Amino acid sequence: MSASDWRERPRKRAVASSVSSGRAGININDKIYTAQIRALYQHTPMVLAVNVANSALVAVVLGSYLEQARWWIFFVLVIALTGLRAIGWICYRHYRQPYETTAKWAIIATAGSTLSGFLWGLGGSSLLSDNILEQTFLVFVIGGMSAGALVSLAYHLPTYIAYVFSAVMPLSSIFILDGRTVHVAMGIMLVVFAAALTFAAHHFHSAFVCGLRLNLDLSERTEELTRRTEELSALNARLEGEITQRKVAENQLHQAQKMEALGQLTGGIAHDFNNLLTAVIGNLELAQNRSGGDPHTAGLLGAALSASERGVTLIKDLLTFARRQSLHPRAVDVSAVVDDAEKIFKQTIGPDICLFISAEPGLRPAWVDPNQLALAILDCSATLPRGERGVASGDATN
Q1: Which residues contact 49 (CB under 8 A, 6 or more apart)?
Q2: Based on the domain organization, do 334 and 226 belong to the same domain?
Q3: In this predicted model, what pLDDT tens digit does every residue of 228-286 receive, in sequence order?
Q4: What digits encode the pLDDT tens for the residues 90-103?
Q5: 236 CA to centre of own chain
Q6: Is 368 within 8 Å of 332 (Cβ atoms)?
Q7: What tens digit of pLDDT does each residue of 119-178 get?
Q8: Which of 208, 232, 256 is the last residue of a domain?
Q9: In a domain, 151, yes or no
Q10: Same domain membership, residue 151 and residue 27
Q11: Could you tell me if 354 and 389 are in contact, meaning their C-beta atoms sit under 8 angstroms apart?
């Protein structure tokens, strides 16, 4: 892949990024341009300090050593221009706004660099004498400053070119127009040196812009990846919630199916048992009619008939559980239900358990199915261990 292909790829990414950017028409090129000017102003204090230091060096060497006082005037002009550029730098730090005023600050920076370059180039050319030592020293200082500006001004290529050529071209023109071989050679060397620095600055600028473009592209891709990761996490959480709800619904369905199957089984058994009890009750009634006047036999048959009738009530309860018979709650005197069940209780629990029935008079009726209440009390008495004493009490509040 050639160098042009590598340069073309960031441009394509810039177009794609500018289309996908949602910041009110601000594309990636605006961000890169703003970053260039920001880097330029970040290096401005160093540039100003170097200008002051080099002008002081020139004034000391050429003004004091060679006793040429006019170079002190040059030093004062450099100080004045440096002060103006420092004020511009302070204003940039306090009043700059992202993207909107970038072009204005770029023009200010380029103008300051141009004036500084012309001050060195035209000022040095006008104050320069025929002393070859003085000329060589000034060429050395201007060439060093141009080379040093490569790492501080090349972030914005127009600013660097304005500084270098405004500083080098006046001095090189004087040398070339002088006509002497040494001066022409020095002038040509300055032009070649400026062209080489410009070429190096172009590569530095291109690398800086490419790095910014890749960094911004990576940031946008990272933001997009983060956003999609958050969306995926939200979808995953919602899916987990739906899975949990589905498991709960499946468990409820399985429980309902089990209860339905149990109800069907209970209903079938209840019907069969009801048929058996019908025969038992019929035979007990026949035996009761034929028992004659024996009270003991009549009592036993009556207890058996009552137990059979309780069995019928149990079958009704089973049918209710199987959803084949509905409950019939009504106002019931609890004490009367307990008294009616006393005989069947005594026949059921046997002689090893003492039964005490305590039913307070004047209790308020309870809204309940009487058969269900009697069955519940019978179940409680039947589950008592042998040898223990049970107490059945009626309370309107329970």
Answers
A1: none
A2: no
A3: 999 999 999 999 999 999 999 998 888 878 877 777 777 777 777 777 778 788 777 77
A4: 998 888 766 667 88
A5: 13
A6: yes
A7: 998 887 887 777 787 788 888 888 888 888 888 888 899 999 999 999 999 888 888 888
A8: 232
A9: yes
A10: yes
A11: yes
Q: Given pLDDT bands bounded at 50, 70 and 90, which one contains residue 20?
A: very low
Half-sphere exposure of 261 (CA within 13 A, CB side): 5
Q: 43: part of which helix (H) or strand (E)?
A: none
Residue 344 and residue 303 in contact, taking contact as beta carbons nearer than 8 Å: yes
Q: Are residues 61 and 189 in the same domain?
A: yes
Within a domain: residue 310?
no
pLDDT at 17: 42
Q: Is 391 helix (H, G, I), strand (E, B) or coil?
A: strand
Joined tokens for residue 221: 């891709």
Q: Are 138 and 172 in contact (CB under 8 A)?
A: no
> Of 232, 267, 287, which one is at a domain's C-terminal end?
232
Domain that holds residue 376: 329-398
Give the DSSP per-residue string, 50-80: HHHHHHHHHIIIIIIIS--THHHHHHHHHHH
- Distance from C-alpha of 342 to C-alpha of 356, rounded to nearest angstrom: 10
Distance of CA 374 to the CA centre of its chain: 63
High-pLDDT (> 70) share of the chain, %: 78
| Whole-angstrom distance, CA of residue 233 vs CA of residue 239 | 10
pLDDT in tens, 58-98: 888 877 765 667 788 888 999 999 999 999 999 988 887 66
* Chain mean position to CA 355: 70
Residue among 22, 30, 34 nearest 224 (CA): 22
Is 154 found in the same domain as 19?
yes
Q: Tokens 């002008």, residue?
A: 55
> How wide is the angle at C-alpha 162 spanned by C-alphas 160 and 163, nearest 5°?
65
Whether the Cβ atoms of residue 75 and residue 57 lie closer than 8 Å to each other: no
| Distance (Å) of CA 324 to CA 255, 318, 319, 328 | 19, 9, 5, 13
In a domain? residue 1: no
In a domain, 254, yes or no: no
Same domain? For 159 and 20 the reply is yes
* Residue 387: C-alpha distances to residues 11, 227, 351, 356 (Å): 99, 75, 9, 14
Count of domains in the chain?
2
Across the range 102-116, mean pLDDT stands at: 90
